From TrEMBL:
Residues 3-63 form the HTH tetR-type domain. This is TetR family transcriptional regulator. PANTHER family: HTH-TYPE TRANSCRIPTIONAL REGULATOR RUTR (PTHR30055), TRANSCRIPTIONAL REGULATORY PROTEIN (PTHR30055:SF151). SUPFAM superfamilies: Homeodomain-like, Tetracyclin repressor-like, C-terminal domain. Residues 26-45 bind DNA. PROSITE patterns: HTH_TETR_2. It comes from Microbacterium wangchenii.
């Protein structure tokens, strides 16, 4: 049997989440899948939150986010693309990213790069952090929709319940492609951040 390591435990947790959903991930379930007693896990992960933090760390490792200086727009676009890819690759485990904040140097490294990029663009430390959060929120929502789509669970409005004469705009959306909304969200975010940065640059002059 392979040695029990933190990474092996976390990879098992990701596999369970992708197969059965994040709520199915428990220390007892992981122990059962690995064929060990649950107390054997405690030297590596002590709590359910530690498991979730580890899943976040593992996913961000797989995302290959920038860890060397880039400009803010490149970081935002890269982050969006990375979250979309993770959502498709790990449709169950992806939910961990919205359950817990990043913990530890490895998970936080790219967000430090992002804040530095916004700082170079002229934002204060608080504004740079806010800009990163502004990028993270919609990326996670888009990712959540992509993960539901990957599982075949993307909900849709039941058009039959809406009379066409009262809801012509909804009925005009027949065969709507959800990727259009995801792309529109990214471009709207980038345009908004660019306007905010430009406004602050003008005020500073």
């Amino acid at each position: 049997m392979a040695a029990l390591t933190r990474r092996r435990i976390l990879e098992c947790a990701v596999a369970i989440a992708d197969r059965d959903g994040l709520d199915a991930v428990t220390l007892r379930r992981i122990a059962g899948e690995l064929g060990v007693h649950v107390t054997s896990l405690y030297n590596h992960v002590e709590t359910r939150d530690a498991i979730t933090d580890g899943i976040v760390e593992l996913l961000l490792d797989q995302a290959h986010l920038p860890v060397t200086p880039v400009d803010w727009e490149e970081w935002v676009r890269t982050f969006f693309a990375a979250m979309s890819a993770l959502a498709i690759q790990h449709p169950g485990a992806f939910a961990a990213l919205s359950r817990r904040p990043v913990q530890g140097a490895r998970a936080a490294a790219s967000f430090e790069i992002a804040m530095a990029a916004f700082a170079r663009a002229g934002l204060s430390a608080g504004e740079a952090y806010s800009a990163v959060k502004a990028a993270v929120f919609p990326a996670l929502v888009v990712g959540a929709e992509r993960s539901m789509s990957a599982r075949g669970e993307l909900p849709e409005t039941v058009m039959e319940d809406l009379p066409p004469e009262s809801f012509p705009q909804f009925h005009a959306l027949e065969d709507y492609d959800p990727t259009l909304a995801w792309a529109f969200s990214l471009e709207t975010l980038v345009a908004g951040l660019r306007a905010q940065i430009s406004d602050r640059a003008s005020t500073a002059r």
